[in-house]
Amino acid sequence: MVRRSLFYLIIIALTATGCSKYAYVSLNYPTPPETYLPDNIHSFAVLNRSLPGEEQQNDHTVEAILTAEVAGSDRLASDHCIKGVYDAVMGLDHAELVIPASLRMAGTGTRELPELLDWEKVTEICEKEGADALLVLETFDSNSDLMLTAARDQVAAIITTGAPKPVVPAQVDVHVVSYWRLYDPGNRRIIDQYQHNSYMTFDTRGGMLPPHALPEAAYEAGRAYMERYLPGNYSVRRRLYQRTSGSAKQLFRAGYRCSEVADWQGASEFWMQLTEHPRRKTAGRACLNMAVTSEVSGHTDEALKWAKRSYQLHNDKLGRDYAKILIQH
Fold first, then answer.
1. Which of 42, 51, 52, 80 is the most exposed place for a label (fewest CB within 10 A)?
2. Could you tell me which of 177, 180, 173 has the C-alpha nearest to residue 218?
3. The pTM is what?
4. Per-residue pLDDT tens digits for 150-195
């Protein structure tokens, strides 16, 4: 499988807390993607098959009215969905997206899923475009709760006042449903098939959706689908000491000032001098800060050793709590 390397990338933000003896470091750790591309897929073409053919046009118009589809146009919005995929693919290390000269192919034009594409057709498209696989937007459908919101507000007005009154919704939700299939012509198998539901809320303008609403919602739906193949991240927060008291006060504070400008090497050189300080509290705090410095530098095993030392030798309770977190990490 093609996997983005989950190297020890940490984005660091140091936050001081006023007069408190503590400061906080925020670290972002990578998480694996939700799904992976097979090793043999290095490029794929994308096709919009979500639009109705000529014979479905009339039925699709009726369906659009009944479901409050945003006037306009799934026809244009679905292409924005493809653009969202294209932009998100830029985050993949080992795959690229190919946009065919002919982007569209007639489908059902509704949420009804079409039959699988003929494998000969899939192979033909991939060979023509020089792609290893074919990603197809099989269905795309959008609607808003504009009419529902207006009706609900009217009912509320009648119940409250006994009479309807003009109501202009301040906000409206746009719902986009997209269904994707990723075809592997070499092995004649479906690598992935996935339906994505997304909702975005927009402020109305004179009771109407702003023109950018549907394209933006469609674009984000496309990005959301492709981001399943991208690694994410999660944030953690680590506490460290800003200062100590007594003869080590200036040296300890100098280390903290280094950390404020992300000079963790400089900070560790100051704090290392204090890890054997005769004053137990100062030594414990210095060990704790060395633990944080080690984790920031990508050395979690070293961080655990320093956290344990902070508590075991110097009875620093923060070191005990930190060690427990690192053991579970």
1. 42
2. 177
3. 0.67
4. 445 544 555 566 555 555 667 778 888 999 999 999 999 999 999 9
Distances in Å between the Cα of 31 and the Cα atoms of 4, 88, 194, 286 are 10, 17, 21, 31
In the chain, where the domains are located: 43-230, 242-328
Name the class of domain 242-328: mainly alpha
Nearest CA-CA partner of 87 in 216, 192, 178: 216
Q: Over the stretch 17-55, which tens digit does the pLDDT of each residue have?
A: 556 789 999 998 888 989 888 988 999 999 999 887 655
The answer to whether 214 touches 141, Cβ cutoff 8 Å, is no
Greatest mean pLDDT range, 9-18, 21-30, 86-95, 310-319: 310-319
- Beta strand pairing status for 43-52 and 133-144? parallel
Burial group, residue 107, by CB count within 10 angstroms (0-12, 13-18, 19+): buried
Q: Choose which CATH entry (1.10.8, 3.40.50, 3.30.1340, 3.30.310) describes domain 43-230.
A: 3.40.50
Domain 242-328 in the same topology as domain 43-230: no
Backbone angles phi, psi at 303, to 5 degrees: -60, -40
**Cβ-based neighbours of 131, under 8 Å, separated by 6 or more:** 43, 44, 45, 98, 125
C-beta separation of 95 from 182 below 8 A: no
Q: How far apart are the first and last CA of the chain?
A: 25
